Amino acid sequence: MEPKSYRETTTKSWGDKIGAAFRAAAFGLALCAGGVTLHWWNEGRTIHRERSLEESNIQVVAADVARIDSNNEGRIVHLTGRFEVLKEAVDPELGFGLSAARLKRSVEMFQWDEKKRSETEEQIGGGSVKETDYSYRGVWSSREINSSKFQKSGYVNPGPLPFPTATFDSSNVKLGAFTLSHAAVASLPGWEAVPSDEQLANLLTPVLSRVRTPVQPAGGWIFAGRDPVSPRVGDIRIRYEAILPKEISILAKQSGETLVPHITSKQNEVILVASGAKSAFEMISDAQKQNKTLAWGLRGGGVLLLYLGIRLLLGPLAALTSVVPFLGRAVGLTSGLAAFVLALGISLMVMGISWLAHRPIIGLSTLTGAILLTFSAGAMRGKTSSASRTK
After folding, report:
1. Which of 378, 382, 379, 388 has its CA nearest to residue 317?
2. What is the pLDDT of residue 296?
3. What is the pLDDT of residue 182?
4. Which one of 2, 30, 224, 344 has the lowest number of neighbouring Cβ atoms within 10 Å?
C-alpha cells in the first residue's frame, strides 16, 4: 500500500501567537505539578523498595522444594526447582490451550495511520506561516487507530480490533510440593514463541474466518486475509507466546502449601522469580539493580515533565519578542536553556527533601546542588528578560 501525502498551509498573527502561548503556559503549570509529584512519589517508592529488599535479604531462609516444612510458615523462603503445569492455560475466545503457566495472545490489525511533519517560518511583525505535510500509509497496530481524527477524509479504519491482546494464566502450577499463587505465576520469566503453523491455523480458522478469510500461517503469525504480502485495511494477524515448564528460583512467603508475596514492614510486596538456579543473594542483588534502573528512568521522566512545563511557562516571552524574528529565536533559545537548568534544580530540590528523612548526607548534598542550579537558572532568566525589554 503506497503512502499518500498532502500539504496544508496555515498562518498566525502576532496576537494569535501570544494568545496561544499564554494558553500553553496554563498547561505548563500542570506539567510542572506532574513532574514534582512524580519525583516525590518515585523517591519514596525507591527508598521503600530498597529497604524492603534489604529486609528480605536478612529474613530469607533456604527451603526444600520437595517438602513443606511447617517451621517456615509465614516466612520468606528461597526455593529452586522445575515447575510443572497441572492445568492448561487457555484462550477461551479462540479455543486454544497449551500446557503452559502463561499464554499470551498478540493481535494486530492492518490500519491506516496518519503522520505529520511541520515547518514554521517566522515573519517580520510577529506572524508566522506553518506548512504541514500529512502522509497516510497502512501499518500493523495492536491498538485501534481512530481515523475520525485524521486531517484528511477518505482513510477509514474498521474500528476496534475483534480480539484484544491478552494473557491467560494456568490456575494450577506446582513447584515441587508447593503451589504457585497467581502473583507468582504472573512473575514467571522466559516467554517463548508458540509455532504459528498449519495446525494452529486450522485450530483458529472457525473463529477467525468470521472476521476475514482465508486463515493461514505467514511470517511467524496466523494471518486472516487474502494476501499476507499485500495486506488490506481490516486484515488480522495473531500469534502466541508461552511460559513453559522449566527450572526456576523463587523468593516468596510460605503460606500453607502456597507461595505468595511477602509483605515487608514497609508494606511493600516482595516476590522474586528468576530462570535457572540462582542464590537468594543473587536474586536480591538483581532486584536492587532493577530498582535503581527504574528510579533513574522515572527521575528522567520527572526532569522532562518539568522542562516541558517551564518551557511552556516561558513561552510568552518568545512570543512577545517574535515581532523581530531573530530576537524571538534568541529569547526562545535562552528560555530553553534556562528551563533545562531550572528543571534540574527543582528536581534535585524535591529529591533532596525526600531523601533528608532517610539519607541525610545524600539529601543535604542534593539540596546544595539544587540551590546552585536554581541560582544559575535565575541568572539566565534575568538575561532573557533583559533581551525582551530591548526589543
Report:
1. 388
2. 96
3. 97
4. 2
